[in-house]
Amino acid sequence: MFEARFQSFEETADPSQGAARLAALRSALAADGLDGFLLPRADEHQNEYLPPSAERLAWLTGFTGSFGFVIVLPEKAALFVDGRYTVQARSQVDQKAFVIVNVAELSPSEWLKQNAVRGQRVGYDPKLHTVDGFERFEAAAKGAEIELVAVRDNPLDALWTDRPAPPLAPVAPHDDALAGEGAAAKIARVQSELARVKADALLVTDAHCLAWLFNIRGGDVAHTPLPLGFAVVRREGRPDLFLDSRKLSNAVRAALSRIAEVAEPKDLEGALGRLGAGQAKVRLDPSGSAVAYARSLEAAGATVQRGPDPIAKLKAVKNAAEIAGARAAHLRDAAALCRFLCWLDREAPKGALDEIGCAEALETFRRETGKLKEISFDSISAAGPNAALPHYRVTRATNRKLTPGFYLIDSGAQYEDGTTDVTRTVVIGAASEEMKDRFTRVLRGHIAISTAVFPKGVSGAQIDAFARRPLWEAGLDFDHGTGHGVGSYLSVHEGPQRISKLGTVPLEPGMILSNEPGYYREGHYGIRTETLVLVEKRAIPGAEREMYGFETLTLAPIDRRAIEPALLTTGERAWLDGYHARVLAEVGPLVDRETRAWLEAACAPL
C-alpha cells in the first residue's frame, strides 16, 4: 500500500570494516611520509548532505551522522561527534579502533594537541577544511610542535575502491515567480553589497548560495535540490559560473549564458589566478569556504577579505513570493500530515505498525499531493527508546514496532514553492504521569517561542532560553538548539539565523526558523514538538521600539492525550486552543471525511 522512494532503510556503512580500513589508511599515510590525517565529514562546498562520493568518514568509520570529525594518529584514532550523535556513534563504530569523543567535552584541535607527538607530520585535504576551522588546528600544531601537511589527493579515495562517481544531476531553472526576483536583480544586489564592503569580487563555494543567486536547482545531493558548483561575482560586470556542462541542457545553458559566463569547475583555479593577477580584493566566508581556495587566491596575488557571504543573509530574508509559497506549501503539507496522523491513530492500536511502515506511509500521503519533489531529510520515525535519539535514522536492523508509549515522527517535504519540517510526538495507548509532565514542559517551551515578542536586533541566542525554562524548572534540558533556519525550496537547515545558544545573528522579518524544543530520556522515550515560524513585524500600542514576533506556518494537531492540563497557564491553554481552531479551520476543508472527523476530535478545546 505504501512505499518510500526518497528514503532508504538500508544500513549504508559497515562498522565491521573500520579496523581494517583504518589499518589500510595508516599504511598509505606511512608510504607518503605522514604520521596521521585529519578527516572532517565534508565536501568542498561544506554541504550538510554530501554526495555519496564524499562520504569518506562514513566509509572509514561506519558512522553516518551529519556531523563528525576523525583524527588518525599512528597509535590512536578518534571520532568526534556532538550531543545529537553520541549514542548513535557508539552503535555504529568499532570502539576498539576509534575512541568516540563528544566535541562539547574536548575539541578535535585540543585532542590533537594532547595526543600528537613532537615532530609528527599530519596530513589533511585543504578542500575539506574551512579557513576558520583549520586555524584552530594550526594553533594546536604549533603548540604540539607537529607539522600539518596539505595533500594533493585525498588518500582515502585510492583506498575506497568502490567509491561512487561524482553526481551529475540535471540543473533546472527555478521559476522567477516562485523565487520572487530574477537572477539579474539578485546579482545586482550582491554587487551593491560588494561595493559597500569595498570588495572587488566574491567567491561563492556554498551550493545553496549558488542555487539562490542564479535561480537554479539540481539533484546532486539527497533531499536538498542543489547543483554543485562555484561562482565568482565581480563588483562590476558578469559573474563566472562554474558548473559541469554535462548537467546543462541547451536551454538551461542558454538561459544562464544571458547572465553569466558559464565554465567548467576545473576552470575555477584559472579564474582565481586572474583575480590574483589583478590584485583583487576577494570576499570569502572563512566559516564556509575551504582553505584551498583562500590559499590559491593569496598565492596568485589577491587579497582575501574575510567576512560572511552576503548571499546568505539575502537568501535568509524571504520576499513576498517566497512567503506566499511557504504558506501554500505548509497548508498542502498539513493536509498530507493530518491524513497520516488520522491513519496512525486508527492503525497503531492494532499492533502491526512499525517505524519503516510509518515513514513509508507519510511519504506516500505527501506524494499524493501531486506536488512533492523530495523529502527534506530522512524521516525520523522513532518508537520507544529510539525516539530518545534526536537524529535517529531507522534501518531494517533497528526497525521497531509501535508499542504503547510515545511515537515520534520528524519529517519534511520539498515542494517547488517551499520547504517544510515538522515533528509531532504521538501517544500510542496511554502515557505515564512522567511522560505527560515532560511532554507538557516541552509544549510550554514551544508556546513560549511561538508567543515571543522581541525588539529589533534580538538574536536567537537571546530567546533560546524561553524554550528551556519549563524543563530547567524540573532539572531537565535538551542538547540541541531550539531552532534552525529553513530555506525556500532549498536546505531544511539554513543559516545564518537560528534559535540556539550560538545564534548571534539578529532575527529579521522574512526569516523562517524551526521551533523545536524536546526532551529525551535515554533508553526509554523521546519528545519533540516542532513547527516552522516566520519572523514578522508586530504593532504594539505605545511601543518605543520596532517589535517582532512569529507567525506559525506549520498546521498539525499537538496530541492532547499527552498533555497535563494542570501544568498549563490560562494563556498557554488559550494559545493551544486557538492554534487547534486554526488547524481545523484551514486544514479541515482540504481532507477527506474520515480525516475531517478525526481533526475535529484532535482539535477540540483542551
Automatic annotation (TrEMBL):
Its EC number is 3.4.11.9. Keywords: Aminopeptidase, Hydrolase, Metal-binding, Protease. This is Xaa-Pro aminopeptidase. Residues 21-146 form the Creatinase N-terminal domain. One of its GO terms (cellular component) is cytoplasm. It is an enzyme of class 3 (hydrolase). InterPro entries: Creatin/AminoP/Spt16_N, Creatinase/aminopeptidase-like, Creatinase_N, Pept_M24, Pept_M24B, Peptidase_M24_C, X-Pro_aminopeptidase_P. The keyword Nucleotide-binding does not apply. Pfam families: Creatinase_N, Creatinase_N_2, Peptidase_M24, Peptidase_M24_C. One of its GO terms (molecular function) is metal ion binding. Gene3D superfamilies: Creatinase/methionine aminopeptidase superfamily, Creatinase/prolidase N-terminal domain. Residues 326-536 form the Peptidase M24 domain. Belongs to the peptidase M24B family. Residues 546-606 form the Peptidase M24 C-terminal domain. The keyword Protease applies.
